[in-house]
Amino acid sequence: MLNQGPLQWMERRKSWRDYTSELIAPKKLEFLQKTFQEIKPPFGNQIGLEIVNFKGDIKPFLTYGFIKGANTFIAGKVSTSSPMNWEDYGWAMEHLILVATGLEIDTCWLGGTFRRTCFSKKLELKKDETIPAVVAIGCGKQQRSFRDQVIRTIAASHTRKLWATLFFENDFSTPLIQTTEEYSTALNMIRLAPSAANRQPWRILKQKDTFHFYLKRSAGYDQHKKADLQRVDMGIAFLHFDWALREFKTEGKWIQETPDVTKPMDMEYIASWKKNS
Ligand SMILES: Cc1cc2nc3c(=O)[nH]c(=O)nc-3n(C[C@H](O)[C@H](O)[C@H](O)COP(=O)(O)O)c2cc1C
After folding, report:
1. Ligand 1 and 151: CB distance under 6 A
2. Is the CB–ligand 1 distance for residue 194 below 6 Å?
3. Which of 62, 89, 110 should be mutated for ligand 1, with most atoms under 8 A from CB?
């Protein structure tokens, strides 16, 4: 049922904001639903995922007009206080987005432009839980609307930051110039990852076979009780990196051990991937 593999899904995936009235085939939805059980976020947070349908009960401004034509969403809830909750949420949702892409379902992450209260009821959200973001799913219109094109232009969605500004070797004054095919592919897959407003907050420092992931926060994306979207972005990057390396049969583990390296003031250490010996 899946068309191609993870590397192609990462390359093919793009955000879609206009959908046709065509329904997603029940078999595909079933497949997606079954995938929920396979999701294993690296830091062990429980993510309660659901496919949510709005039909008769669709509310105006559900997505503040950002999404047109879709009434099916993937939504999830996670503890507001558990360590690495935002990263695990990003990992879990992106797992589903990539599988959806393999099923030829179009998607769009929504972290800012959706009404949380409408989803809270459907997910029976408890006091200590939050819905950091949701994902619209459906059959994207072939032609992007003018509105979608404007949103993409504002976020510069078709571009990515330069390799040398994102990836470093041994210290933060040395850009990572050359590495093995598997590592360069995996880092490139991070560059293709979606991120809130396309801010690409990930910075990665390679030390031999360990990659340290840092967050460089953008103005206006501070920690927020309901959603720390840039840490969700980090979890998405973890998944792209990990899955890309698995395609080369390279496996590693996710750990939190702050490296003894001088880091720029505006960067925050999040976690590291260490190759299995
Ligand atoms: C955590 C997260 C939150 C996002 N929130 C929104 C949103 O609220 N509204 C929206 O239109 N797009 C949203 N996006 C989509 C990004 O704008 C998009 O991923 C980025 O511009 C790159 O474009 P691409 O996904 O087509 O590669 C979000 C993406 C992520 C990862």
Report:
1. yes
2. yes
3. 110
| CA quadruple 220, 13, 51, 63: dihedral sign | positive
Average pLDDT estimate for 119-145: 95
Using the atom order of ligand 1, give the atom closest to the CA of residue 67. 11
Domains in the chain: ranges and CATH: 6-149 (3.40.109.10), 163-275 (3.40.109.30)
Report how far residue 245's alpha carbon sits from residue 182's, in angstroms, rounded to the nearest whole number: 6
Residue 7 beta carbon below 6 angstroms from any ligand 1 atom = no
- Provide the pLDDT for residue 80: 94
Q: Is 74 exposed, middle or buried (0-12, 13-18, 19+ CB in 10 A)?
A: buried
Count of CB atoms within 10 A of residue 27's CB? 10
Q: What gap in Å lies between CA 187 and CA 190, rounded to an integer?
A: 5
Query: Residue 56 CA to chain centroid, in angstroms?
Result: 29
Half-sphere exposure of 239 (CA within 13 A, CB side): 30
Query: What whole-number distance in Å separates Cα of residue 61 and Cα of residue 153?
Result: 22
| pLDDT at position 10 over 80 | yes
Q: Is the ipTM of this complex over 0.90?
A: yes
